[in-house]
Amino acid sequence: MKSDPKTFHVKSFGCQMNVYDGERMGELMAAQGLVAAEADAADLVILNTCHIRERATEKVYSDIGRLRKDAGKQGRTPMIAVAGCVAQAEGEEIVRRAKVDVVVGPQSYHNLPGLVARAATGLPALDTDMPIASKFGALPARRKVGPSAFLTVQEGCDKFCTYCVVPYTRGAEVSRPWGQVMDEARALVDAGAREITLLGQNVNAWTGEDEAGRIQGLDGLIRALDRLPGLARIRYTTSHPNDMTQGLIDAHRDVGKLMPFLHLPVQAGSDRVLRAMNRSHDRASYLRLLDRVRAARPDIALSGDFIVGFPGETEAEFAETLSLVDAVGYAQAFSFKYSPRPGTPAAAIAAQIAPAVMDDRLQRLQAALNRDQQAFNRATVGRSCDVLVERRGKLPGQMLGKSPWLQSVHLLTGAAIGDLVEVELTAAGPNSLTGSPFALAAE
Ligand code: 5AD
Ligand code: SF4
Predict the structure, then answer these.
(1) In the CATH scheme, what is the code of domain 281-380?
(2) Ligand 2 pocket residue status of 157, Cβ below 6 Å
(3) Do domains 141-259 and 281-380 have the same CATH topology?
(4) Which of 88, 107, 155, 258 could form an S-S bond across to 130 if both were Cys, CB 3.0 to 4.6 Å?
């Protein structure tokens, strides 16, 4: 039997929504009187896991093994809780395979305190329900946050792309109500946030009723947040091309606080592959959509997600992904080798692609994406913009922040974390830029 834990540590893997959930789990445990500690000293370690690709899933098991071994050397047996999408997908299998104390899914982590108390008495503690009532109402209020904060407004996915586990692990698309989102946004600003990134698996499918009872989309929410005093910047991610409404495109033209950045995954450049993925958009409609976004906001930085080696993908079809990348000119992007996920339709397709072919395609795609990222960064040199200072750099007086286009910018400044500093971008490296603050430049 384990005693009640006094200290805790949360480790989040995977997407930004998990980072957000991990923060809220930490706040929840702190509200129970537990104290945050490092992973190698905590009585309770919560692994907030990701199931999107096989490697992400396997990481959980190797982490549990390492945690146990390190703690064993110190004569400790920490309580281990597995949260997140692996917990949802594998449930009891994790208890069988890794003998962890608590398993809790992404829609039920508000029950963590009860589960931990139960595990402390030696009873099995597993909760992977997807209750109708949202967990959010049961979580403590936001307290202290950094200058750039996440706010989950939408969860789940109804799109059922054939490679993806998200509709199974996160459930159906659900939007948090308008009032709840606005209240949390105000709380985040009061707690120190200058920038809020609205999160959702399909964030641009968000819908709700405003105070006057009018149905609003994400653009309505963004316009309301634009009026929030103290908030300087708004971002949102991740979007689906089919939910990119004209209203949201217009918001990129009209809303001053909405940053010129759009993460709009396309996954592949070939229409046959897009159909096999059940993406419900094609290459031409995606490119037309980007034209409309660029017409509304010419300086917008585009980002995307790509999968190489989807079952049956031929060399010629992969070449269409490369030509789409050439046509768009992404400012940054994420690219992955296809990973068959249990229970998804694509995992059952016979024509799986050989690992060496996937490696080769990923390398070529990443070379093209890196080339475009550098070109984008170089093209912003000479521009003036503000930088939101997020943390200290390595050198004395050096700070690190983000440009409107989500680039990392180093600057020498006396400004504090959370300040917006006007700079001229003076140099570009592959992953970051240098900014020269105007006050300093004038000296
Ligand atoms: N294999 C590889 N990549 C995947 N993604 C989702 N499912 C898989 C999979 N089975 C990628 C997609 C998605 C991103 C979050 O992860 O590109 O947009
Ligand atoms: Fe997965 Fe497709 Fe839904 Fe994105 S849109 S979460 S890739 S099923």
Answers:
(1) 3.30.750.200
(2) yes
(3) yes
(4) 107
Q: Is 288 left (phi over 0), alpha (psi -120 to 50) or beta?
A: alpha
Strand 7-12 to 125-127 pairing: unpaired
Identity at 426, one-letter amino acid code = T
- What are the contacts of 265-268 at 24+ separation with CB within 8 A? 265/238, 265/239, 265/240, 265/241, 265/304, 265/305, 265/306, 266/241, 266/304, 266/305, 266/306, 266/324, 267/161, 267/305, 267/306, 267/307, 267/310, 268/306, 268/307, 268/310, 268/313, 268/317, 268/320, 268/321
Expressed in angstroms and rounded, the spacing between residue 14 Cα and the centre of ligand 1 is 11
Domain 7-127, second-level architecture: 3-Layer(aba) Sandwich (3.40)
Q: How far apart are CA 27 and CA 29, in angstroms?
A: 6
Hey, what are 337's tokens? 């080798």
User: What is the residue type of 135?
Assistant: K
Instruction: Indicate whether residue 52 lines ligand 2 (CB < 6 A).
Output: no
What is the rounded distance in angstroms from the CA atom of residue 253 to the CA atom of residue 247? 10
As a whole number of angstroms, the distance between CA 425 and CA 417 comes to 19
Ligand 2 center from residue 67 Cα (angstroms): 32
Ligand 2 lined by 166 (C-beta under 6 Å): yes
CB 180 within 8 A of CB 147: no
Name the residue of 336, 361, 369 whose CB sits within 8 Å of the most ligand 1 atoms, as the mutation to test its pocket: 336
Torsion of CA 286, 169, 50, 68, to 10 degrees: -170
Residue pair 216/210 in contact (Cβ under 8 Å)? The answer is: yes
Give the fold, CATH level 3, of 141-259.
Answer: Transcription Regulator spoIIAA (3.30.750)
Write the burial class of residue 159 (CB in 10 Å: 0-12 exposed, 13-18 middle, 19+ buried). Answer: middle
How many residues are given for the chain? Answer: 443
Q: Half-sphere exposure of 423 toward its Cβ, with a 13 Å CA cutoff?
A: 30
**Structure token pair of residue 196:** 């809020």
CA distances 312 to 161, 266, 273, 351, Å, are 16, 18, 8, 5
Q: For residue 344, how far is its CA from the centre of ligand 1 (angstroms)?
A: 12
What would be the CATH architecture of the domain defined by 384-440? Beta Barrel (2.40)
How do the domains of the chain map onto residue ranges?
7-127, 141-259, 281-380, 384-440
CA of 319 to the centre of ligand 1 (A): 19
**Contact predicate 221/232, CB 8 Å:** no
